[in-house]
Amino acid sequence: MKAIVYESNTGFTQRYAEMLSEKTGLPAYELETVKDQLKTGDEVFFLGWIHAGKIRGYAKAVKQYSVKGAAAVGISIPDEKILPKLKTDNKITDIPFFYLQGGVAPEKLGVINRKIMSMLASSVEKAGIKTEEDKKLVDVLRNGGDFIKEENLTEILAFIGENPK
Ligand SMILES: Cc1cc2nc3c(=O)[nH]c(=O)nc-3n(C[C@H](O)[C@H](O)[C@H](O)COP(=O)(O)O)c2cc1C
Q: Which residue owns the Cα nearest ligand 1 atom 4?
């Protein structure tokens, strides 16, 4: 693997990409601005934020590079249904694929997206707060905050470790 390539809107995916870079020694590049640093077909690990079920940047990354593994960063609480759904919706078939919980930075979102986050908080509340995680999710959706933890990267680090440069 040559590098970590990512697309991030408000910085959470970027933080995960930078943590991975630090741990693996691979450089992390933003998809939008990476150019001379990588060649077409180079092997990369891709991370993209989830926007209405779509992993932003994934389709473009696949066209430019040989994406050996990928991670989607969203706000949903991880469960067994997330990966299969994201895979179908983003046409991910034959690569190792991971889900990471990111966060919400209201100050970096426009009015409409802030409203969407607050509507999402209400729908989580309506469905019923069953766990501490549900409670934290509602708070993060309304007030901002994050779920980023180094230990969320354990599986991805193991995968990258098995596929060195
Ligand atoms: C308009 C909008 C739509 C979103 N749609 C989803 C979604 O479908 N599933 C999900 O898990 N998270 C969704 N999110 C949450 C983001 O993926 C999450 O906040 C992520 O951490 C953002 O990463 P970033 O800071 O790298 O942009 C959405 C966020 C916004 C603003």
A: 51
Beta carbons of 2 and 42 less than 8 angstroms apart: yes
Find the 12 Cα to ligand 1 centroid distance in Å: 10
At residue 102, the pLDDT reads 98
- Looking at domain 3-102+148-162, its CATH superfamily turns out to be Flavodoxin domain (3.40.50.360)
CA torsion through residues 13, 3, 35, 18, sign: positive
Residue 165 Cα, ligand 1 centroid: separation in angstroms?
A: 31
Q: Which ligand 1 atom sits closest to the C-alpha of 50?
A: 17
Closest-lying ligand 1 atom to the alpha carbon of residue 15: 26
How far lies 134's CA from each of 53, 75, 137, 140, in Å? 20, 11, 5, 10
The pLDDT assigned to 109 comes to 97
Each domain of the chain, given as residue ranges in start order, spans 3-102+148-162, 104-146
What pLDDT score does 165 carry?
67
Q: Atom of ligand 1 at shortest distance to CA of 8?
A: 26
Whole-number Å distance, alpha carbon 88 to ligand 1 midpoint, is: 18
pTM over 0.85: yes
Block mean pLDDT (10 aa), the chain, length 165: 97 98 97 94 98 97 97 96 97 96 97 96 95 95 96 97 80
Task: Tell me how far apart the alpha carbons of residues 109 and 49 are, in angstroms, rounded to a whole number.
Answer: 14
